[in-house]
Amino acid sequence: MAVTSDYTAAKGATFSGFSSLIEAAKTRYIRNRMYRRTVNELSALSEHELADLGLHRSMIKRIAQQTSAEYAAR
Question: Is the pTM of this model over 0.85?
């Protein structure tokens, strides 16, 4: 009886590990998608439009990283 209980617990732990792996992959996918979307949208703006927002073109990748990290943290 103890062997069956241990086996069941180990089997559940393996499933739990797989489930967390899937969740981590989904989070990475969403974060990467948000990063690419932010870079694309900001890159499409003109220098004047970026200046109106208080941004410089060299800041786009850093802002996209921060945005995707904040979005994934929610």
Answer: no
